Amino acid sequence: MPSFDIVSEIDIQEVDNAINQARKEIEARYDFKGSKAEVLWDKKEVTLTAEDDYKVGAMASILQTKLHRRGIDIKAIKFEKIEEAGGRMLRQKVTLVQGIDREVAKDIIKLIKDSKLKVQPQVADDKLKVTSKSIDELQECISLVRGGNFPLPLQFNNMRA
Q: Is the pTM of this model over 0.70?
C-alpha cells in the first residue's frame, strides 16, 4: 500500500556549521572584544553565556541569522528565558526541536481526519505514517498538512508507491 512519513528533523551538520560561523562572528565583532561571551553546543542544545542582556541578545540574533542562512527553519529553535549563571554572567539556553510530540501529532491527525480524505494516519515514535490505496489521496494529504499552521517544521519523506 502506498505510504509516506511526516517527520520533523533538522540537519545536525548544518547546525554545527552555523554555530561555528556564529562563534567566528562573535569573536570578530568589536562590541564583544575583551568579553567572556561563549557559545557552547552539546548536540542537543546551545548555551549562550555573556556579561549582560545586550550581549546575550546579540548572540541569539547572530545564531538565529546563521541558522536561517544554513536552511534551518526558525520554528525548530526554541529560546529559553535568560537566567543568572553566577559570577555576573547571564545564560540563555537554545533548544533544537526534533521529532513530532504527541500533541502536535494529535493536531495533524485531527486535520487529516476532518478533511475526509481516504488516508490512515498513525503515530510511530516521533513521526507519523500515512497510508492509502491512492497516491493522489496521499499527495492531497501532503498539501493539506503543508497548509496547516504547526509550531514545528514538517518534512515528508519515504513516499512509497
A: yes
CA distance 55 to 48: 9
Closest to 67 in 3D by CA, of 76, 57, 80 = 76
Residues sharing a CB contact under 8 Å with residue 114, sequence separation 6 or more, in sequence order? none
Measuring CA to CA, which residue among 158, 127, 57, 48 is closest to residue 94?
48
Query: What's the alpha-carbon Rg for the chain, to the nearest Å?
Result: 20
Q: Which residues contact 32 (CB under 8 A, 6 or more apart)?
A: 26, 55, 58
The H or E element containing residue 106 is helix 102-114
pLDDT tens-digit map of 16-46: 999 999 999 999 999 889 888 999 999 889 9
